[in-house]
Task: structure prediction
Amino acid sequence: MGRERHAVTAAVRVLREHGVAFTHHPYAYEERGGTAVSAREIGVTEHAVIKTLVMEDDAKRPLVVLMHGDREVSTKNLARQLGVKTIAPCEPAVADRHSGYQVGGTSPFGTRRAMPVYMQRTIADLPYLYVNGGRRGYLVGMAPADLVRVLRPTPVDAMA
Result:
């Protein structure tokens, strides 16, 4: 499959700039299907599909949280680790403005605004992961070490 068959998103451009070896995984997007649908469609465990969540602290500062698809974020635990009062998901329109992506197609790579990235520490233990490639219905697969090298996320224990 040639590169030209895939949309070149801001995320794909960032991965190429950093020399990341990644695989393309387009799938049939379902509204509100989340990682359960994407994992099923590409035939992988939902635990290996990483969701990109745009959240904000009590001062409305945006941040990105990366979490296993089959797990929820404990905003209380995360707030405690970050030393802030509260962490909450951004409204979809606000998340879109911060990331430059549409909710459901948010990639942690190539966001419009530079935001701190926090990653559930167990993600680094996966043999391979799948994360949104910058549009709905499109995941990219890569070694966790490449995600860590490019994003330099802060590891956290934020599972609910």
